[in-house]
From TrEMBL:
Signal peptide: none annotated. It is found in: Cell membrane; Cytoplasm; Peroxisome. This is Kv channel-interacting protein 4. It comes from Gekko japonicus (Schlegel's Japanese gecko). Residues 83-118, 119-154, 167-202 form the EF-hand domain. Residues 9-19 have a biased composition (Polar residues). Residues 1-20 are annotated as: Disordered. The lineage of its organism: Eukaryota, Metazoa, Chordata, Craniata, Vertebrata. Belongs to the recoverin family. The gene is KCNIP4.
Length: 213
């Protein structure tokens, strides 16, 4: 929800006139989203929630799509104390499921649906896809380190207590040792999910990931 500030629910529910206007605008924007009914069936949002989300999305992205540079600009507003550029790049790729270089309203809704209302399994699948940078079905130590460094860069130097320079690498070493069950140098989705579900410390550490979405 932090990605698009206008996406937050408003205190007054949309009235029938706004609903009609939304339906008209849904049909006239340059990139026309799928019918609300279809998105309602595919996501875990109600039609009213989708209308509110769309109103916020179109305020930030009138064309109906957002490219990576715009995505980075929006995301950076929420982490002024650090550099969110690299993490926003990885996050953009996770939302851009068809890898066409832009995030549509449909992409945004489906990703948000998983992150906010998905099952533990669905959220972990999404997280695995984020860490699997080259999308080959495995997470290497280097990929995990790239993500972790990006998170630490984004959080900035103002954290308390002050983090040591090698903190990302130490974090990854701990993660990877627990996850790479067969010690083959890569983490599969099954290993990732099993480790996260069974290890309370890893689940608590995953909150760092959740807090920066």
């Amino acid at each position: 929800m932090k990605l698009f500030p206008c996406s937050a629910a408003k205190s007054t529910p949309p009235d029938s006139q706004n609903s009609v206007e939304d339906e008209i605008e849904l049909a006239t924007v340059r990139h026309r989203p799928e019918a609300l009914e279809l998105l309602e069936a595919q996501s875990k949002f109600t039609k009213k929630e989708l209308q509110i989300l769309y109103r916020g999305f179109k305020n930030e992205c009138p064309s109906g799509i957002v490219n990576e540079e715009t995505f980075k600009e929006i995301y950076s507003q929420f982490f002024p104390q650090g550099d969110s550029t690299t993490y926003a790049h990885f996050l953009f790729n996770a939302f851009d499921t068809d890898h066409n270089g832009c995030v549509s309203f449909e992409d945004f809704v489906m990703g948000l649906s998983i992150l906010l209302r998905g099952t533990v399994q669905e959220k972990l699948n999404w997280a695995f896809n984020l860490y699997d940078i080259n999308k080959d079905g495995y997470i290497t130590k280097e990929e995990m380190l790239d993500i972790m460094k990006a998170i630490y860069d984004m959080m900035g130097k103002c954290t308390y207590p002050v983090l040591k320079e090698d903190a990302p690498r130490q974090h990854v070493e701990t993660f990877f040792q627990k996850m790479d069950k067969n010690k083959d140098g890569v983490v599969t989705m099954d290993e990732f999910i099993e480790s996260c579900q069974k290890d309370e410390n890893i689940m608590q550490s995953m909150q760092l990931f959740e807090n920066v979405i």
